From TrEMBL:
Top-level taxon: Eukaryota
UniProt keywords, alphabetically: Ion transport, Membrane, Sodium, Sodium transport, Symport, Transmembrane, Transmembrane helix, Transport
UniProt-recorded name of the protein: Putative inorganic phosphate cotransporter
Compositionally biased residues, Basic and acidic residues: 454-463
UniProt membrane topology term: Multi-pass membrane protein
GO terms for biological process, alphabetical: monoatomic anion transport; sodium ion transport
Membrane-spanning parts: 24-45, 57-76, 88-111, 183-202, 240-262, 282-305, 326-343, 349-370, 382-405, 417-435
Localisation per UniProt entry: Membrane
Similarity comment: Belongs to the major facilitator superfamily. Sodium/anion cotransporter family.
GO molecular function annotation: symporter activity
Annotated spans, Disordered: 443-463
Primary subcellular site in the record, as a coarse category: membrane
Keyword match Transmembrane helix: yes
């Protein structure tokens, strides 16, 4: 029985609590990604020798600080999906943002009294706790979102990560200019604390546990998702997953995307300051433009991807590969052009940076949806594996940039950084074009004797 068959009509909810859950998850990603990127702007001010009480940290130390978030982030990616299924997504998301808020408030004290080592420790803790966020949010999407709303709900929630990047880059310069760099972390911590309080009041693990949802809407969601009656939790086919060539190519694709994306995310503010000589206030505004481009492009890209697929102009696999090619080859070409922008040509540099990062939207309608295409029953686990592995490159990429940039004011050294990222983009997508697929994998449906009962299946089945 499904809502689409007409057996349960979509009710008109005076207080659409499922949409409230969507917006809370959207803002959860806005906050988490904002906290993830705030150091990229703050460190430019923290190491500005023209300011009092600045820190004498070399480019190598700065690169270590910028990469330290991911040391913790990669640890819990795979187990987080299993923990969300067992304990529920709400408690994990709430705990993660609460920890991030508290640590954010502590970063200025850590810098002044513990040096860069304590700053790294704070970032590791933030990364460790944020490892729960994405798998838990997918868990909650699976429980709260009816089948006919999955695509647009996923697009709205995932766009929060890009908006979080943009807002943080946009306002951090103004905050630092007005109140000093510590205020960046204080504002982040305060916003995170407000979200935690609101989510404790409004949030819930599932419609079944919510006291704010009507019985009619609860039944509609459960019926749409096939969650009425007993549920089964499928055991994860680890061997089949790790020996799947298409899935291994997806891991490589995700790694290459993270390399290029996080090279730009962590190094772009320094590039604009050291090479283009853009002041910190304008730096934040210009650095935010590319991520605003991703946010706004995510909606038409999502529509076009569904249109090509639904009209059967392209197969699912071809549609995903087209999106990936736009999101990987496009930035690779633009990066080469960026590496030859004359020093001081701010306008051209910002245009190319916007193209480079903006075209990364292709991975949202390609790479991220392939997990679902291949095995919807295990999408959380697959995403945990690829995201955890890919974030190892998020550690390596800034470190490589730090090694290459012996003189961060030299455009030729920045050209090497951009060439490396461009090469990784091209190699990763080419490998996936050869070996990748979006066809449903046989191991998505294990034999009946490999399933076990549970009270909620939606954590394992996300659309």
């Amino acid at each position: 029985m499904s809502a689409e068959d007409g057996e349960v009509k979509k009710p008109k909810d005076k207080f659409p609590i499922r949409h409230v859950q969507t917006m809370m998850m959207f803002f959860a990603l806005v906050i988490c990604y904002g906290m993830r990127v705030n150091m990229s702007i703050a460190i430019v001010v923290m190491t500005d020798k023209s300011l009092e009480n600045s820190f004498d940290w070399s480019m190598q130390i700065q690169s270590v600080i910028l990469s330290s978030f991911f040391w913790g982030y990669i640890v819990l990616q795979i187990p987080a999906g299993e923990m969300a299924a067992k304990f529920g997504g709400m408690i994990l998301v709430t705990s993660a943002i609460a920890v991030n808020a508290l640590v954010s408030l502590a970063v200025p004290f850590a810098a002044y009294y513990g040096g860069w080592q304590m700053v790294c420790a704070c970032r590791v803790i933030q990364g460790l706790s944020q490892g729960f966020v994405v798998p838990s949010i997918y868990n909650l999407i699976g429980k709260w979102t009816p089948m006919d709303e999955k695509s647009r709900t996923g697009a709205v929630i995932n766009s929060g990560s890009q908006l979080g990047n943009a807002i943080q880059l946009l306002i951090s310069g103004f905050i630092a200019d007005a109140w000093g760099w510590p205020a960046i972390f204080y504002v982040n911590g305060a916003v995170g604390a407000v979200w935690v309080v609101l989510y404790i009041i409004l949030g819930s693990d599932s419609p079944q546990k919510s006291k704010l949802i009507s019985a009619e809407v609860r039944l509609y969601i459960q019926t749409s998702l096939g969650q009425v009656g007993g549920q089964k939790k499928l055991k994860t086919p680890w061997k089949a997953i790790w020996t799947s060539i298409p899935f291994l190519s997806l891991i490589i694709l995700h790694c290459s995307q993270n390399w290029g994306y996080w090279t730009l995310m962590t190094e772009m503010p320094s590039y604009m300051k050291k090479v283009l000589d853009v002041d910190i206030k304008a730096n934040g505004m210009m650095s935010a433009l590319p991520y605003l481009a991703v946010y706004f492009l995510s909606f038409p890209f999502g529509y076009l991807s569904d249109y090509l697929r639904n009209k059967k102009y392209l197969s699912v696999t071809a549609t995903r590969k087209l999106s990936n090619s736009i999101g990987f080859y496009g930035p690779a070409i633009a990066l080469v052009g960026l590496s030859y922008v004359p020093a001081g040509n701010v306008t051209l540099a910002v245009i190319l940076l916007t193209i480079v990062v903006g075209l990364n939207v292709g991975h949202l309608t390609g790479l991220m949806l392939v997990h679902l295409d291949m095995a919807p029953n295990y999408v959380g686990t697959l995403l945990g594996i690829t995201n955890g592995t890919a974030n190892i490159t998020s550690i390596i990429a800034p470190l490589v940039a730090g090694v290459v940039l012996q003189d961060e004011t030299d455009p030729n050294e920045w050209r090497k950084v951009f060439y490396i990222a461009s090469t990784v983009y091209i190699a990763g997508n080419t490998f996936y074009l050869i070996f990748g697929t979006s066809e449903r994998q046989k191991w998505n449906e294990p034999p009946e004797n490999q399933t076990g009962e549970t009270s909620d299946k939606s954590a394992d089945k996300v659309v």
